[in-house]
Design goal:
- Residues 309-465 form the 5'-Nucleotidase C-terminal domain.
- The structure is a single chain.
- The chain is 27% helix and 24% strand.
- The chain is of the alpha/beta class and 509 residues long.
- The chain folds into two domains: 14-297, Metallo-dependent phosphatases (Purple Acid Phosphatase, chain A, domain 2, 4-Layer Sandwich); 306-504, 5'-nucleotidase,  domain 2 (Alpha-Beta Complex), CATH 3.90.780.
- The strands form seven sheets. The protein has a six-stranded mixed beta sheet, covered by helices on one side. It has a five-stranded mixed beta sheet with strand order 17-14-21-16-22. It has a four-stranded mixed beta sheet with strand order 20-19-18-24, with helices on one face.
- Helix 8 packs across helix 12.
- The longest helix is centred in the middle third of the chain and has 18 residues, at 285-302.
C-alpha cells in the first residue's frame, strides 16, 4: 500500500476521524531512521517481492509508481514475487530495467529465461560489509507459473536451487549467506531444514505471515494473528540454527533483525521484531509530497464514471444466496473468454465481494472496491463431478460459521439446505451455446469453467478446482470487470438476469 491505510489495511477515512497507519512515506521514514541508527553496523535493506497490485494506485500507475517508491527506499537487494508477473513479461521488463538503471539489484536463483523476455537476473550477489562478504540468494515459489502470467519462463525447485547456490557461494569464501525468499513460511521452514548447511538467515514473503514474539514488548495491532516468533528459529540436522523472518503484508510492518556472527560466519546472537507503522510514526517529507501529488491523479481516475446501474448491485447477501453483484461479476469474467463459438460457465466464491454498488453512476473506484483482491481471471478444464463438488462446498457451513454461496454465470442450480452437507445440491443445469437452453450437468463430461486465481488454487476448501486438467491464466479481475461494465454502459434487470441459484431452507451447522 503506497497511501496510508486503516488498521484493516483498507482505505483510511481520516475525514471521519480514523487514525491512519502504514503508507510508503512512513516506511521511508522508518527505514531512514534505522539506517541512521545502525550506520556503524552497515545495515542491509532487503525486499522479498510482491510490490505490484493491491490498490487502485497500481491499476492506474502500473509498474511506474512501484519503481518510483522502490527507488526512494533503494533496497540493497530484491527478489521477485508472483504478483510482479500479473501484467505478463511486458509489464515486468521495464520495471526491472528501471531498477537496474538506478543500481537496485534483483536476484532470483530458480528462474530460467530462455527467450530473453526480461532482463537477465543473477541468482545471487555478494555484498561487502566491514571486510566481510555477505551472499544474498534470491528465490521465488517454484509453482509461480500456476499463479501468474509468466510466459515461457521456467522455475526450478526452490530448495534444491538454494542449496546448490549456497554451496557455490561457500566455495567462493562467502561465510554469511542470506536467502531472500518469496516462497512462503512453510517452504522457508523446509528450506532451512534441507538447505541450511550454509544458509544463516531467510528473509521471506508470499504467505503474509505475521511473526511476533510477545516478550519483545513492542507495539503491534492485536487484530493481527501471530503465526510464530520473530524470528522463527530452525535447527537443522547438523545443529545449525537458521533464522526466518517475515513482516506480514500491506506495509503494515517492516522487519528489523540484528544478527551477530563469529569469525567463522556462524550466528551467535540475534534480536529483532517487526516495527509497526502505526499512526505516530512520522512520514518522510519528500515521499509524503510525492504521495500527495500522485494521489490527485489516482483520485481523478478513481472518480471517473465507467457505467451506470439502474438497479442496486447488493453485496450483503452474497454469502447466503444469489446476489446481483456476484451475478454481474460472474457474467463479466465469463464474457472475457466468450466468442462466437465458445461460451464457458463462471463460478466465483462469495467471499470475493466486499462493497456493494448502489444504483447510479459506477466509477473505477466502485468497480475495484467491489472485489478488491487482485485475482487473475482463469479458465479451467474441469470434469462435471468436480464442478458439482465446488458448488456443494459453497453451501456448506464453513469453519467461520457462514456460507460461501457460489455466484455463477451460464448455469442454474437448485439446493436444499435442510439436507446433510455435501448432499444439498439437487440439480445443476448448464446453458447450451447453440440453443441457449439449459441441460443437466453431465458429471463425467468436461467443462470450461472461468473462475478467479483464489478459487483455482483450491483455497477456502475449494480443493476440487485442483482437479483441473488445464489452467489458463488471464488478466487482473478488476481490469476485466471494468471492461465489461464499460461494454454494458447501463445495467438493468433486462441485461442482468436473476434466477441462477435457487436455495431452499436455512443452515446453522
Amino acid at each position: 500500500r503506497f497511501d496510508e491505510t486503516s488498521n484493516k489495511s483498507s482505505k483510511c477515512r481520516s475525514d471521519l476521524g480514523e487514525e491512519c497507519i502504514a503508507g510508503i512515506a512512513r516506511i521511508h521514514y522508518a527505514v531512514s531512521k534505522l539506517r541512521s541508527e545502525f550506520y556503524n553496523h552497515t545495515p542491509l535493506l532487503l525486499n522479498a517481492g510482491d510490490n505490484y497490485q493491491g490498490t487502485i494506485w497500481y491499476n492506474y500507475h502500473r509498474w511506474k509508481v512501484v519503481a518510483q517508491f522502490i527507488e526512494k527506499l533503494h533496497p540493497d537487494a530484491m527478489t521477485l514475487g508472483n504478483h510482479e508477473f500479473d501484467d505478463g513479461l511486458q509489464g515486468l521488463a521495464p520495471y526491472l530495467n528501471h531498477l537496474q538503471s538506478v543500481g537496485i539489484p534483483t536476484v532470483v536463483s530458480n528462474l530460467i529465461d530462455r527467450t530473453g523476455g526480461i532482463p537477465k537476473l543473477p541468482p545471487s550477489l555478494i555484498i561487502e560489509r566491514q571486510k566481510r562478504s555477505i551472499g544474498i540468494i534470491g528465490v521465488i515459489y517454484d509453482k509461480t507459473n500456476e499463479l501468474s502470467k509468466t510466459g515461457d519462463l521456467e522455475f526450478t525447485n526452490s530448495i534444491a536451487t538454494v542449496r546448490a547456490e549456497a554451496e557455490k557461494l561457500k566455495q567462493r569464501g562467502v561465510h554469511i549467506i542470506i536467502v531472500l525468499s518469496h516462497c512462503g513460511l512453510e517452504i522457508d521452514k523446509k528450506m532451512a531444514t534441507e538447505a541450511g548447511d550454509h544458509v544463516d538467515v531467510i528473509v521471506g514473503g508470499h504467505s503474509h505471515s505475521f511473526l511476533y514474539s510477545p516478550d519483545s514488548g513492542q507495539p503491534y495491532n492485536e487484530q493481527d494473528t501471530i503465526q510464530g516468533d520473530y524470528p522463527v528459529v530452525i535447527e537443522n540436522a547438523k545443529g545449525r540454527k537458521i533464522l526466518i523472518v517475515q513482516a506480514y503484508a500491506y506495509g503494515k510492518y517492516i522487519g528489523r533483525l540484528t544478527t551477530y556472527f563469529d569469525a567463522d560466519g556462524e550466528i551467535v546472537y540475534w534480536e529483532g521484531y517487526p516495527v509497526y507503522m502505526r499512526h505516530d510514526v512520522y512520514q518522510h517529507g519528500s515521499t509524503f509530497r510525492l504521495v500527495k501529488k500522485l494521489r490527485k491523479q489516482v483520485q481523478s481516475y478513481a472518480s471517473t464514471k465507467i457505467a451506470e446501474t439502474r438497479i442496486d448491485l447488493e453485496q450483503e447477501t452474497c454469502r447466503t444466496r444469489e446476489c446481483r453483484l456476484g451475478s454481474i461479476f460472474a457474467d463479466a469474467i465469463a464474457d472475457y473468454y466468450t466468442n462466437e463459438t465458445f461460451h464457458p460457465v463462471a463460478v466465483v466464491n462469495a467471499g470475493n465481494f466486499r462493497t456493494p454498488i448502489p444504483r447510479g453512476d459506477i466509477t473505477n473506484e466502485d468497480a475495484i472496491g467491489a472485489a478488491p483482491f487482485s485475482n487473475s481471471v482463469e479458465l479451467l478444464t474441469l470434469r462435471g463431478d468436480a464442478l458439482w463438488n465446488l458448488i456443494e462446498h459453497s453451501v456448506v457451513w464453513s469453519a467461520a460459521k457462514r456460507l460461501n454461496v457460489m455466484q455463477v454465470s451460464g448455469i442454474k442450480i437448485v439446493a436444499d439446505l435442510n439436507r446433510k452437507p455435501y448432499a444439498r445440491v439437487l440439480k445443476i443445469e448448464v446453458q447450451d451455446l447453440r440453443t441457449k437452453h439449459y441441460k443437466p450437468l453431465n458429471r463425467t463430461a468436461t467443462y470450461k469453467v472461468v473462475t478467479l486465481s483464489f478459487l483455482a488454487s483450491g483455497k477456502d476448501g475449494f480443493k476440487w478446482a485442483l482437479e483441473c486438467t488445464d489452467r489458463q491464466i488471464g488478466p487482473l479481475d478488476s481490469d476485466v470487470f471494468i471492461g465489461y461494465l464499460k461494454k454494458l454502459k447501463v445495467i438493468t434487470e433486462q441485461n442482468l438476469r436473476s434466477g441462477r441459484f435457487f436455495i431452499n431452507g436455512t443452515v446453522t451447522s
